[in-house]
What does this fold into?
Amino acid sequence: MIDSESQIKDNVTPFFSESSFRHFPSITLTWPGEDSVISLKERYNRKMNVMRFLAMGSIVWGHCQFIDSPGVVLSPSTDLIQAVLRQLGRVGTVNFFILTGFFLGDKVMKYTAASYLKRRFQTIIVPWLYFLGIFTIAELIYRNAFKQSPGEILIIGTQLFRGLIFHAAYWFIPVSVVSGVILVLFKKQQEKLGFGLVLLSITLFYNANLYFQWMDSNHTKAIPAYAFFVWLGGKFKTHLVMVDALIRRVSWPVLLTVAAAAFLLATLEGAYLQKLETPDAYASLRLSNSALSLFLFLIVMKTDRLLFINALQPQKYIFGVYLLHTITICVFSNVLDELLFRLPDFTNGIGEYILLQCVYFAFIFTLSYTIAVLLKNSALRFLFGK
It folds into this structure.
């Protein structure tokens, strides 16, 4: 937390001085006073809460997709629509790392690696372990694993635990923590462009790996690749005055056109990688998806029309939705499979598929949010950490 108004002013600094714009006489920047800077920070904090909500919505949408289920048969003529549906579930991940960096940005200089890990352990690692443990035990019960010997139970449990980390939503926490540790260890390099370029080059390497398959291309295992986005989020925070001034200067037609073009490019790249039989064709680290995520982030930062979402208190409950939604999906997956078995295929009805997808997503997201609210306001609130 920021302790004083002076700290806020100190931490919200311009990326460039006014002299940096001498070659651009049409651009005039006026740095706000102390009260204005505080107001700016508060306004962006509210917008970050909107971004939390929308990013989690995208992530849940992606995990709710059943487009590859055995009971779903779609016509090849709908391939582009299918690609659009897949892409909608990939734009939230990068933004969550930018959010992580934004909220870490003005604190990174205060941490050592040990103090950062201690803080993260209390706030997110313990809840993460709670829910991973609950999920693992539930899976062991479902598979009747407790009828096996203790050694076999341990082996199966370890395999399930590892699988849930790398093949469910739970990979985000260790990657986020590692990214934070990287920034803390190199905190003296934070303001150097070269450091950002090194992190970017790592991200671009993993992006190229999607095409060349030098190593496992699954986005959940590309742990160092997300540090760039955490660093970028931190730069947004520490240079908030500058960022806000530039966002205000970009017109809506330009921003929306660029974002639409980025969405089309990301959709086409995902479809192309799928044709190449890339294991993780719609990986979040695709260059086109990263650009799209950034443009969507700027849109949310520019508009005030979505601030009503703050009434849902996403800063309080979205972490719970993250921890819960995978479990919720697994609980109701058998119900969905049964429904798909009873319904006719969607070969000539992409509209019916989209409708069912939307209903399933709305159900999972609303149920997960409701459970998070109930738990957070009960004696079980400790499950979500301090």
In short: The chain has one domain: 5-384. Residues 5-384 form one domain.
